[in-house]
Every structure is written in C-alpha cells, then in structure tokens.
Amino acid sequence: MSSPSPRTPKPLLLRGARIVTMDAQRRILEGDVLVQGGLIQAVGPSARRPVGPSVLDCRGLVVLPGLIQAHIHLCQTLFRGLADDLPLEAWLERRIWPLEAAHTPESVYWSAMLGAAELLLGGTTAILDMETVRHTASAFEALEEIGLRATAGKCLMDAAPAVSPAALREPTDRALQESADLCERWHGAAGGRLRYCFAPRFAPSCSGPLLRAVSDLAERAGAVVHTHAAETPLELEMVKRATGHDEIAYLDSVGIAGPRAALAHCVWVSPEGVQRLAQQATNIVHCPSSNLKLGSGIAPVPEMLAAGCRVAIGADGAPCNNRLDAFAEMRLAALIQKPRLGPDALPAIEALELATLGGARALGLEREIGSIEVGKLADVIVLDLDGPHAQPAEADLVSRIVYSAQPADVRHVIVEGRVVVRDGVLRTAQLEEIRRAANAQARALIASARLR
Amino acid sequence: MSSPSPRTPKPLLLRGARIVTMDAQRRILEGDVLVQGGLIQAVGPSARRPVGPSVLDCRGLVVLPGLIQAHIHLCQTLFRGLADDLPLEAWLERRIWPLEAAHTPESVYWSAMLGAAELLLGGTTAILDMETVRHTASAFEALEEIGLRATAGKCLMDAAPAVSPAALREPTDRALQESADLCERWHGAAGGRLRYCFAPRFAPSCSGPLLRAVSDLAERAGAVVHTHAAETPLELEMVKRATGHDEIAYLDSVGIAGPRAALAHCVWVSPEGVQRLAQQATNIVHCPSSNLKLGSGIAPVPEMLAAGCRVAIGADGAPCNNRLDAFAEMRLAALIQKPRLGPDALPAIEALELATLGGARALGLEREIGSIEVGKLADVIVLDLDGPHAQPAEADLVSRIVYSAQPADVRHVIVEGRVVVRDGVLRTAQLEEIRRAANAQARALIASARLR
C-alpha cells in the first residue's frame, strides 16, 4: 500500500486563464486561481500572489472545475469491448457476471488504474464508483495511488439466483460486515479524498433486510448509498412482482432516498416518480451513452431538472459505453433530448452543470467541489481549446466546452492542489506499466471466465 | 492559387501494422501496405519491398481506410458555436442565412481551411461538401492547398423568398451557369483529387426547372448531385404543398435519384420511401449528431441497410454538431438506434462500413477509395490505440475503433500516397496561421451579419 496523497504544501498559482467558475452567477472571469493547502484561496483578476508559488502558465487556456462522474464501475474497465451490442440481461449474464466473478485482487487493482488513468487524462477529477463484490480494497489502493477523488463501494448482492448469480451472491450478514469493515478502513482515507459508499447492485438482486441495513449503515457513517434504479422496464416489473411497489417508492420504503442516495439511470420514471425524486432531493445519475448502448432508453432529464431534481452524469462502466469520457457524456446528454423536446432542450450550460455541480451533490460534496470558489477544494482542470475543432474562439465558451471539446484538450489536471496531469502527461503513475499490466490481467480474466 | 498536389513520386511503405482492410471479406491482416504512384500496390505479410521507399514504422499501430464524410458544409465551419440550441428554421433564418450571406472569398477560404484541418487531423480523408452560393472557388483553392480529397459544389437557391432568403437567392440561369463554370474548372482538378458536385440546397428552395437542369448537367459531367432531403416534417409538408408529391418521389421525378444522387439526412422517410431509395440505389447520408442537435429525429438506418440502401455518414456543418469528427458520428450512428431497435442494432462493423465503403459510394468513388485493396488510391489513416481509453487490446479491433477511438488517436494520414498528417501534425498548412486567420474572419462575419 502506498502512502496517502499529501496536501500540496507549496502554493500553486494558475496564471492568466479564462475561468469558468460555475459559481451561483455562473461567472466567467479572466485572471488567476491561487491554491494553498489544497484549497482555492483566491480567484480572479486580483489574486494575491504569495511568495514563491509554483506557477502554471494558463495564458490562452481555460480553467474549469474538475469534471465529476457519479456512476462508474472501475472494476469493469478491463471488460471494455468484450460485451458489445448485447441486451442488458445477456450483457450481464454472459459477460459481466462471469468476468466480475473471475476478478482477483490484481485484476481489480489494474482495472481501477486503467479506468482512473483514462478519467484523469480526460479531465474527470472525482467519481462515484461501484466495484464488484470482492477485492474492493484493491480498487481503493489503486485510487489512493493514482490521485483521483473517489467515493467507492463494494457491490452487494444477496437475493435469489435469477438476479444474483451464484458466483457473486453473498450471505446478507457477510456482505454487510465486509461493507462496514471497508467503510471503517477507507471512508475519509487519503486525507479525505477517498470515501466509502454502500452499493447494493440494484433492488432485484438485494433482499429487503440488506437494503434497510445498508440505509442504516450509511446514515451512521455519513456515507452515500449508490445503486441502479429504473434502468429497464423488466427491472421495474421484477420489483413490482416481488414487492408490490414501484421501484422508486420501494427504495424509499427501505430508506434509499434523499440527498444521501444516488440512483444511476432512472430512465423509466413516471411523472409522479419524478416529482417524488424531486421532493426527496434524491440524486439521479444520468448515463446517456450507457442507456443508448444497452438499448435502455432516454431518461427524462429536462423534466427532472424542471421539477427540481438533483441530476448528475456518468459514463457507467467501460463495456457499456465504451468511453469514460465526461465530454462525450455532456454532449450526448444535451443532444439526445432534442428530438423529443426540441433543440432548445438541455442547453450547453445545463449539461456542464450536470458534470460539475450535479456531480458534487451526488457525492455529498457540494460544499467541497463542483465550482471554483474561494474555500473549496482545488479540483480544477485546464483546457487548451486552441485546436481547430474548437474554433472560432468568438463562440460561447460553454458551447465550446460541451459541444466541441474532447479529452485530448485537457492540458493539466489538479486534484486538491496536486498536479496529477501536467501537459497531458499523467504524473502519478506510469501509463505504459498500466497498459501492460491491464492487458495481462484482461487476458487472464478472459481465460478464467470461460465466456460463451 | 497553389500548385496541384503531385502524386508522391517516391514509394511509401507502412510497415508492420494491423490492417483493417474493409475488403469484401472484411479481413484484418498483419503486415505492410506498399504505396506507389498514389496507389496501393501491395497489402499484407508478404508486401514486396521496392528499393528505398520512404518507410512509416507502423508497428503496434492500426491502418484503416481513410474515413469518408459525405455531408459537410465547410463554409459553415466559422459559424461553430454561433447557432446552438435553436430549431432548424430559426437556426437557418437567424444565423446560417445571414452568416452565409456575409461570406467573402477570404472568409470562405479560411472556413474551408479550418474545417479541412480538423477533418484531416481527425482521420477524415474525403468529403462531399456543400458550399454557400458565392465564392465556391475559394473553398476549392483551400482544398487544393491542404490536400483533403473533396467533392464540393456551390449551393443553389432560386425559389420563393420564404425558403430562399433574398441575400442568397439567385436567378436560375445565373446559378446554373456559375455551377457549370465551376464544374468545368474544378471537376477532376488536383490530379483528380477534387471533383465538382451540383448542390441544390433542398427541394423547397429550388425551382423545378433548376432541379431538372442540375440533373442533366450532373449526368453530362459525370458528377454527383448533393442535396438535403426529408430532414424535418415541415420540409416534407412544404414539398407536398408545392408539388403534390412526397419529397423522395418528387426528387426522383426531376432526376435526382440513383447512384449519382446523395441525399443528406432522410430522417422522415416512410417504409415505402426506403424501398424506393433502395431500388433506385440512391445514396443516403446519415448525420446522427446534426439530426439530434437540430431536433430533427433519428433516421431509420438499420431499416435502410436491411432494404439494401446505400448509406454513408457525415457530420454536416460545424454549427449543428459542433464537431467534424468521424469517430463521434460512427459511434453515435450505432448508439442511437439501440433504444428503438435493441442493443444488437447497427453493430460496430456496420458503423465502420458507413464511414468507409458507404462514403465511397456516395462520392461515386467506390472503385477508388473506401477499402485497402491493391489498385485503390492510397487514402489511409494510421491509428495509435495504445491510449488507456482503448484498452484492453484483447477486445475486438472494430469495436475499439468505433466505440473507443477519438480524433487524437490519429497518428498519420495519407491521401493518395501523400503524408498530409505525420505524428499528429498537419504538414500541408500551418495550424497557427489557420487559427489566427479563421478567428479574424469569424469576427468580421459576425460584425457584418448583424445577428439578432
């Protein structure tokens, strides 16, 4: 295990940028961002300059809050491209379950490293991550090492074989005990950069007692509960048959609702369900690429926002995307609503809100991250939008970020004041080592999982 | 005017790649590609090596036919980000018409240079391009200079003011005469790399006599007719009201049908219309990003392919996308069909066919480009898929290209044997000069167009 990432002792000055603050007024400022002790100390033209800060010359560049993806499965990164063009049920049964069951501590570690490297290089600084049922500590070790901000949790499955494969199903008590132990060890680790979440896979694969216990444990620990919900009509039917309830109402009845809950997908939610989610202040995590690729549908995100719901965004796992690219998700979140609701639906600024402020809320960190404001943690990214694909510079800056920018435009990435990507190069791990180890682990998993 | 791009006199050897041939058997070979006189002379493990070829070391890289986008408006590249989140009619009337009317020869030239630079750097080697009504020669000059393969045409509009703004409308005879003159000058220029197309904007903005004359001129010149069709229900209604016909049937009645015609969009085509397009062997150009961003809808591409239609792909103009990225279009073409038809709809290989073989057919160049086969023109691209976002390498190669790859993965780009991008750097023009000039021209256009 590596040492926890230290807060940068030396101040850091991002000099001369255009700063998309995402503050309450959505101000775009010209000037500097001063970082000290991992915190943003000053923003704007008159940033006080301490003696001898480390300086990042950001003239001609754009500074943005680090992007946040609130639904990721790092443990699936090694499965990318191994499960294309399949419906959700076959995708799970024929590919994802056997591959997750084959995971070892080493494969979980390198799967997390591979995914986290892609995320950081592409400007994502924080994630909400659902791991598999085993070896979650290995994912945390990778996250500690590579410097991504992450709230991650062991996946929980204790229900009937039809929806919880034998190779992954656990007794309720053991699943809960291991979760509690992981929470004890990792919630608040790495100086607070790592946090634990309780992560029941989805309602059909979990017993009622497990879900209720999870809700209590999360409440006591001050941790997020992260699960999937309302992804397909089949899932809704299963929950209805088993519990007599609509899935969102059922989750509420077991205590999984409100600001501490983050529900991935929510594609199939009725207008009443949307109202309920808004009243509860439950976090919805929209995954547009995944919902298209698995054929799940299009979540009613503009209706959710109009109702006052809290909405974040995420790439989901690599095999149902196949990118972990926050720019692709923002752009697609805007585009897919327009045939249904008109071209003015979900404009660029709202897509950027999903990936910043919305993500911060889903992680329960809206006071710490999501915007560039004095006192917040210095999770910021620096974009170079000089490429031909982002010209002319006359255009609206938010439009250029949401509709034109791409991961390769990310020049620097800073997490809590630490420069983890500089000039497009990952500084916290060796990319070539990750590539080699990840490929070796992928080969071993494929052999061991005996895919059909 | 610059000199025509010469065929490379010196042979070029792409050594040691994985080669996605897109030949009839869709073979993926390991080996070399030998290029002589702009043509592919050998492909595969035993490529004969001439004395002293220029060698591109492609070990660990992937060689692919150059991507083809069969619906682009280079003249709109300067309008990127200036017309977001508006419905098609307001998008045209408030932004695109006034900006196109404000174009000068210089602004058309730099708009084309900016778009072509983005296209080449992103692996697109050939386009079908609709310019505006004036200054089309300037676009050809840019294309000649920068080395992209292009079939381009002056936009034609001679109909009633409601659908042809006064600032762009021309008398029928003048429009036709200028088209014929441009065709005479540019069709087959730059050693055949540049070709002319006749480009009526869309049926409502053109008179019947103009459309019939265009069809005759194109037939005589052996040129493509490129227009928009069935993009919105409103357009269909306008054609129905004016002509009494369904739009596809109307275009057929004026001679715009069959292998020489390329119809962009075709979102709103009935099953009978799809059958008709298949029987005619008319080229359909699918523009998934544009159809989403303008709220137009989702074209029934899997149904078209099942019916035997010829289908290509394109980014459309920068203001309705806002990328000119063939990778984004391929991925989206696959993804958007899946909620409607299931996750196995339009698998990765079909998306790649749209951007290679389908594009070649739409340009009338299926014997010359679209696959890596001996005797075809050497339009090829070289990808570096070693980035974390395209791992593991165990995955299906076509999946990695369609679902994971991005423009920044393009290492080398070769058009007719000429290396126009090497190690990610454009060699035929100065990017910094393009950026500066394009921004200056954009500022001038915005001032002159008096946008509201």
CATH architecture of the largest domain in chain A: Alpha-Beta Barrel
Q: What kind of oligomer do you see?
A: homodimer
Radius of gyration computed on alpha carbons of chain A:
21 Å
Content-based structural category of chain A? alpha/beta
**Number of E strands of chain A:** 18
Count of discrete structural domains of chain A: 2
Task: Report the helical percentage of chain A.
Answer: 25-40%
Might you state the CATH topology name of the largest domain in chain A? TIM Barrel
* Overall pLDDT metric of chain A: 94
CATH evolutionary superfamily of the largest domain in chain A: Metal-dependent hydrolases
Continuous helix count of chain A: 14
* Spatial shape of chain A: globular
Proportion of strand residues of chain A: 15-25%
CATH class of the largest domain in chain A: Alpha Beta
The greatest interface here is: A-B, 70 and 70 residues
User: How does the major sheet of chain A shape up?
Assistant: 9 strands, mixed
Low-confidence parts of chain A, pLDDT < 50 over ≥5 residues?
A: 1-5
How far apart the termini of chain A lie comes to 36 Å
Report on the architecture of this protein.
- Two copies of one chain form a homodimer.
- Chain A is α/β, with parallel strands linked by helices and 452 residues long.
- The first copy, chain A, folds into two domains: 12-65 and 369-426, Urease, subunit C, domain 1, CATH 2.30.40; 67-362, Metal-dependent hydrolases (TIM Barrel, Alpha-Beta Barrel).
- Helices cover 38% and strands 21% of the residues of chain A.
- In chain A, strands 1, 2, 3, 4, 5, 15, 16, 17 and 18 form a nine-stranded mixed sheet that branches. In chain A, strands 6, 7, 8, 9, 10, 11, 12, 13 and 14 form a nine-stranded parallel sheet that branches.
- In chain A, strand 9 (155-156), helix 4 and strand 10 (194-200) form a beta-alpha-beta unit.
- In chain A, helix 4 packs parallel to helix 5 and helix 11 packs across helix 12 (348-362).
- Residues 1-5 of chain A have low confidence and may be disordered.
- At the A-B interface, helix 2, helix 9, helix 11, helix 13 and helix 14 of A face helix 2, helix 9, helix 11, helix 13 and helix 14 of B.
